[in-house]
Amino acid sequence: MTSIRALVLCCTLKPSPAPSSAEQLGREVLAALGEHNVSGELIRVVDQHIRFGVSTDEGQGDEWPSIRAKLLNSQIVIIATPIWLGQPSSVCKMVLERLDAELSETDEEGRLLTFGKVAAVAVVGNEDGAHHVTAEVLQALNDVGFTASASASTYWVGEAMGKTDYSDAGPKPDTTGAATKTLAANAAHIASLLVERPYPAS
């Protein structure tokens, strides 16, 4: 059986060890992927020294190259982000900007190195915007070579202007939990297919 790895890039604004609802949902996605023999890890991006830019290495202590190496070693990449002002977090946008560099990175057959990798999104927030954030992130990831499977997102939003975090909202097996399970099943399925039958040469 093909070995599939997943990487969750958690784009919370909160450095560790502060609790993060985005991290919780990201870890729930990893757990659901584990039911399909997918292993993986989560990186809280704000804990790393990531420089702004659009290259694979911005120098001067930039830690993006180590994250990128893990990304290139994964077949599934999940962006977990909170909603702020109806938008993906600034950390999420920085990650997407760094991934712009992949448009210049190809294999010996002219394919982007991200071809064959499956993208998914996990979104949390106390306001509207989950569908907008999902659309922005998946479109950006598709632009730089990732494939989105059917139902490639899971989300939770609380009451507008409310104070309840996802971690405090209690079990949601029939809503967010069901979406997470579908995301995991479909992402694992497409990832295994793309490992066995890569995209054609460009």
UniProtKB/TrEMBL annotation:
Database matches in Pfam families: FMN_red
Q: Where is the NADPH-dependent FMN reductase-like domain?
A: 6-148
Q: What superkingdom heads the lineage? A: Bacteria
**The name this protein goes by in its record:** Flavodoxin family protein
The organism encoding this protein is Micromonospora mangrovi
